[in-house]
From TrEMBL:
Compartments (UniProt record): Golgi apparatus membrane
Keywords: Disulfide bond, Glycoprotein, Glycosyltransferase, Golgi apparatus, Manganese, Membrane, Metal-binding, Signal-anchor, Transferase, Transmembrane, Transmembrane helix
Protein origin, superkingdom: Eukaryota
Molecular function in Gene Ontology: beta-N-acetylglucosaminylglycopeptide beta-1,4-galactosyltransferase activity; cytoskeletal protein binding; metal ion binding; N-acetyllactosamine synthase activity
Record-annotated Galactosyltransferase C-terminal domain positions: 139-216
Membrane topology: Single-pass type II membrane protein
Pathway: Protein modification; protein glycosylation
Limits of the Galactosyltransferase N-terminal domain: 1-134
Cofactor dependence: Mn(2+)
Name the UniProt record assigns to this protein: N-acetyllactosamine synthase
Cellular component annotations (GO), alphabetically ordered: Golgi membrane
Presence of keyword Metal-binding: yes
Length: 270
């Protein structure tokens, strides 16, 4: 496929006011997909094998909105891609970064993905020129979120949506497994990247616009004050705490038309 897909349209209309049904979404965007939320272009060979990893628990409405907008955009970007929803089993403390590690490991078992996009379930891109592919360095995609007045909240901000090649991900030993509850894990990932001598790529602030679905803080994902304290230790912990020592138990893998659902026990403290 060409380097610059010709079917991109630029700015997208994104609206969360209408509630959606799964069957409607499957009808509207499911046609070109194979089970598991898999797609590859038919008329050309895609240059990008991309796994989209979504850390998840109990956000059904958000997932519907995201998939409704994301699938058509990824098809237009002519990616060879699959969408993986990594569901934290049980009611224990949530752990976004560990779920993303699990998503990396499980997706890599299924297919020869070269690029991994890690995305919050509530962030919908507002411009399809924001390419969901990988670059020479780790890329932060959600640079202009409405919640932050379409600006970076701070210059080392790495939350939301990011893209790393398999090699970049393994170079930083993946993400930390030990950030339970809300906060800090995105800053830890940023530091891992910098400490390993890489720099961050970003789209411009027009292409990188996102709409965040408004929500309250979830139960069992309360701010954890220990997380910000851990950030001073990243350089010491990063090669011990990551994809190399990841452990978890897969409880179920289910293939929906729109996504692969992986329910996982990540041994959360209760
Ligand atoms: C910010 C960051 C996010 C992460 C988080 C701190 C933005 C836009 N995002 O998100 O990347 O660094 O702070 O941990 O700044 N989730 C569930 N179910 C739950 C809890 C979380 O599915 O019960 C997932 C979901 O994909 C969600 C993500 O975890 O989008 C982050 O949690 P959040 O949306 O509650 O946190 P938020 O918006 O402050
Ligand atoms: Mn959020």
């Amino acid at each position: 496929c060409p380097d610059n897909p010709s079917s991109l349209v630029g700015p997208l209309k994104v609206d969360f006011h209408r509630s959606r049904t799964w069957s409607n979404i499957r009808k509207e965007v499911g046609a070109p997909l194979q089970d598991g939320g898999r797609y590859m272009p038919r008329d050309c060979l895609s240059q990008h094998k991309v796994a989209i990893i979504i850390p998840y628990r109990n956000r059904h409405e958000h997932l519907k909105h995201l998939l409704f907008y994301l699938h058509p955009m990824l098809v237009r970007q002519q990616l060879d891609y699959g969408i993986y929803v990594i569901n934290q089993d049980g009611e224990g403390v949530f752990n976004r970064a560990k779920l993303m590690n699990v998503g990396f490991a499980e997706a890599a078992k299924e297919y020869d993905y070269e690029c991994f996009i890690f995305s919050d379930v509530d962030l919908v891109p507002m411009d399809d020129r924001n390419l969901y592919r990988c670059f020479e360095g780790p890329r932060h995609l959600s640079v202009a979120i409405d919640k932050f007045n379409f600006k970076l909240p701070y210059s080392s901000y790495f939350g939301g949506v990011s893209a790393l090649t398999k090699e970049q991900f393994l170079t930083i030993n993946g993400f930390p497994n030990t950030y339970w509850g809300w906060g800090g894990e995105d800053d830890d990932i940023y530091q891992r990247i910098i400490f390993h001598g890489m720099s961050i790529f970003r789209p411009d602030h027009i292409t990188g616009k996102y709409k965040m679905i408004q929500h309250q803080r979830d139960k069992h994902n309360e701010v954890n004050p220990k997380n910000s304290e851990k950030l001073t230790q990243t350089h010491l912990s990063m090669d011990k705490d990551g994809i190399k020592n990841l452990n978890y138990t897969v409880k179920e893998i289910a293939k929906d038309r729109l996504y692969t659902f992986i329910n996982v026990d990540i041994h959360a403290p209760v």
